[in-house]
Amino acid sequence: MKALSIKHSAVTRESLLRMAEEIPGGWIGIRIAGYLLILSGWTSSQVAELFGLTRWAVVKWIHKANEEGLEAVKDRPRPGKPSQFSEDIMGELEQTLSKSPKEVGIARQRWDGVVLAEYLKRSYHINVHVRHAQRLIRKLGFSLRRPVYRFLQASQERVEEFRKEIKKNSTGPQKQR
What we know:
Elements: H1 13-22, H2 26-39, H3 44-51, H4 55-68, H5 87-97, H6 113-124, H7 130-139, H8 156-171
Helix pairs in contact: 1-2, 3-4, 6-7
């Protein structure tokens, strides 16, 4: 009998691991599967490669299981302050960052840490440091790079000529009032 296989293009290793991140308790299932594979003879390196983890993470799972038994499967509460950003806020923030700051009432050309921190303070009453706002921008897949202006449909000679003209006009004698 021929072995069954999954042919749907949406069901990939990456998409399943991403779902495990999103679904509460998803990693518990992955840990259980990892323990089952180790009990059936797989090495920590093989399990790590399968789940996209480091070998050291799987080794820590094994040590934890040896110390705690079945309690090692369960997630423990993470230390520290809970995040101020719910999934809804992050979704709205992603949509907002895809627009210009001017569209949301901030007189700036592009998003940066200072602008985002101010927007969060105004819109959600969330105070964050500029560095945290910069990390949020990157986490949502946006860039902090300044826009690069290029002269469209211009030859290099004409660009240099234009720059010299601007420089000459800006350093020339000032008009008297």
